[in-house]
Predict the 3D structure of the following.
Amino acid sequence: MSYVTKSPWIIHYDGSSCNGCDIEVLACLTPIYDLERFGIINTGNPKHADIFLVTGSVNEQNVNVVKQIYEQMPEPKAVVAVGICAASGGIFKECYNVMGGIDTVIPVDVYVPGCAARPEAIIDGVVKGIGVLAEKRAAMDKKPAIMDKKPAATVQTEDNEEA
Amino acid sequence: MTIVLFLILFPLIAALTLLVFKTDAARDIIVKASSILIAAASIYLAVQYFDSKEEYFEFGNVTLSTLMMVIEICLAIIIFYLGIKNKKYLASVLAAIQTPVMVWFELNIGHSITVVNNLYADRFSIIMGLIIGVIGTSICWYSIGYMKDFQHHHHEEPDRRPWFFFLMFLFISAMFGIVFSNNLVWLYFFWEITTLCSFFLISYTKTQETINNAFRALIMNLFGGVGFVLAIVVLGRFYGILELNQMIAMGTMGINVVIPASLLAFAGITKAAQMPFNSWLLGAMVAPTPTSALLHSSTMVKAGVFIIVKLSPVLGWNIAGIMVTMVGGITFLLASFAAISQSNAKRVLAYSTAANLGLIAACAGIGTYAAVWAAIMLIIFHAVTKSLLFLCVGTAEHNIGSRDIEDMDGLFGRMPKLATFMIVGIAGMFLAPFGMLISKWAAMKAFIDSGNILLVMIIAFGSAATLFYWTKWLGKMAAIMAKRENIQSNVHKEEWHVLTLLTLLTIIICLIFPMISSLLIVPYLQTVFPSVSVMALSSGNMYIMSAMLALVVLLPLLFNGKSNRRIVPIYMSGANLGDDLTFRGSMQKDVAVSLKNWYMEEYFGEKKMNLIGIIAAAAVLVSTFALLLGGLI
Amino acid sequence: MNLTTSIIGITAYLILAPVAGGLLAGIDRKISARMQGRFGPPILQPFYDFFKLLEKEPITVNKVQDFYVMCFLLFIIITGCFFFAGGDLLLVIFTLTLASVFLVVAAFSSNSPYAQVGAERELLQMMAYEPMALLTAVGFYLVNGSFNVADAVTSQVMAIQYLPGIFLGFVFILTIKLRKSPFDLSMSHHAHQELVKGLTTEFSGKTMAFIEIAHWYENIFLLGIVYMFIAYSAVWSPVIAVIVCFAIYFLEILIDNNYARMKWQIALNSSWVVALTFGFVNLLILYFIG
């Protein structure tokens, strides 16, 4: 088993959300929910993070930021879209500046629905994300070996599990 | 003895030759040939007198003394005239005081005192000779390339380079005179030559600013000169001697020589740019960089601490020793603080120089075996490392067009070789396995053993400040910035020669310092301090330091500079435009990243530090001389 | 201390310090969580973090920063080795400074805004604690007549009896060295703040893992200095000394949880004032009675 499952560090980014989901994300850190039980730390730095937790949708202003944060995270990494806006754009979907859910720009591994998503649901989503991380980690180990034998077969790590 | 005379006279000949031959080609050859000869001669001297403890030479006659007196009068007239011409009357007044007194003394008292040994060579003067001979001449060598650039940058002005090189070599000649003279009258003669040389070197570009600063240096050094003259008069009139070694011998035998010692130490304090006289050293930074390197690393200021270290056996727990210790300690602390607030590289170096000289003076003032060991070590390491740093800044200035540390960011990408040299220099000034820290360590131990707790506090706080201002400079240069063009191919080859030599010397001296200590410094100290106390550093620690240095040097060599890691842009809240130099700001505007160091003006502002330091140090000096005068009356 | 004990000391330090340091960090996080009314992570969490970081994809912002960080780790270990070999306390402090400078330069080398602010603050912290650290060494020298750690722990007198002021001063700067609030200016283990992760912003994966383990090594030898204050030739003193080390560490956790981060001015002023009062007065008294 990979250690990444025991120490998933999170970066939380707020796209164009109403801040409802963000409040709930922070609620996860409070004594009632205490995310740190699982070794989860909210790092705020993509270079230290394993899980990219995004709330809100992507718009013309933040699209590059979302992409860059994702790119600066070292592998293995997972993306958890929290709330309906992050999943599909939600009630802002038709706004002139909104491009849609997070998956319009980066691959999303776990969707946590809700408006706003409840802390329990968010924790559940993150734990699902941990599972994705473990798979990706395992794939990282296999990849070079497979490459040696038959270069054609690369492992698909896309995973569209839904919470 | 011939070799000592050669060292004093040959640079003089070279200087005069340089005044005659004015073409670039001829100058290059003369400077290079004489630099090599002088360096070789200083090494030869070290080898020749290596086995002897100390040797005194009788050389001298009446004609020579008369000649010196005539030159002295000429110098005084020049200073007097310059002072009147530039409306700096204080300089004229000081010149008009000291030289007539000196002439009166020589005619009435001086000639009746028989001076047996005019010149000498002991291990300390050999060390100083090596510093002047090797580092002083390499600075001249460096100047060949540098002054070409300098002339190029100032092409609208007349070419004064023959004058410049004349002064440089004259200076070296006078410095050799200072370190090898036993006769105080001779020492004073050479002392005054360095004062006047520094005046002309600082005012080289002849702008109003340089002339003002040159006069400040001149006036402050003339104050020291007055102190020197008084010391000679007192010694001649009341003790009937004119020889340095006799004076020190008297002092160690228990005869009270506090008054001449304080006067000579006062002269040393002015020359070593200690507070309250530190402003001349700061002002001297307007001069071309080789001048700064020569004045502030290996020669001028070193003459000041040289005389104080020479006097150290008669200092210690007496009023002269306390004066030197306090002034040195105050300068070390406050100049270190003031360096934090500076962004001009040369001013940082100037404050650091004043601070280190303060430490040397404080060590010498303590006057114990271990403290003087530390002082001499500091002199050696400081001379090498500081000249390296000055010359690096000079080269950087000519190639990036600024001497501001803020403009040196990313120097590692633009001039990797120069940046490496500079990093060695900076590390050499404060980091663990390098020389300055070793000496500081020894100094600290000596301070504790001497029971001077105030100095222990001063060195603890001063070291903390030193750490801060060097590391932030180091960090600026170590920064790796994208898309920097490599511009180091424009540097003259003479500059590379010298920078490489000095970098290697910085490292090698640190590697072999246990040898330098046991072969040169300890034997010298054993002759000066009859009762040998414990060593400043245990030999075990010395070897640990050398081993650590070898490790620090080897590590970068083992590191091949390759990395198979994926290189990602730096984190700028996701708004990095990809080049690491700009980010997308508000309203979709592209903003350039600009990172600046901390200067903590409100804590360590230059004005505040200088004010406190000058008042405190002046109070020490005034009360010392008031006490001495009170004791007389 | 002879060669054998030195070698035993170094070997034990090299092997046990990361284990002890990691456990200490785990206990620290657990106690902090309990103080905040949370359940907290497992005690072994720091080790999980460490191994996870080792597994991550290696990324960097330039080719040299990892080299500087390696040097930082190496010299931290050398510092600890000098200490546990019973070496010179001043040598230990100077080597520690060298190591810290490597870390600062590593952060500077990235030319990243957050890392550079962190680096400047780290430097400020170093400037703040350096005088007190040196005075601590001076204090031991005055009591034992030697800078050697070995002589201090085999001395005939308990150092803290003569150095109460120095001890308090050292505990004060320990807050800075252990990166605890209110003086965790340059980086913080807590949730992300205005600095992102300050000094360590641009380090990730293995490089970050090396910094973690370096901090474990560092923390153990810092507690070693606390140990020096208590331990002397009496047989029972090592036990008391270890208990005091734990008590001091607990105190630091308590302080950490009770204070918000303060301004850098307060960090500098207060630690210098502490050095000038507790440190200086203590030394002064030692000179008078000695």
Observations:
- The two ends of chain B are 44 Å apart (CA to CA).
- Chain B touches chain C through 59 residues (CB under 8 Å).
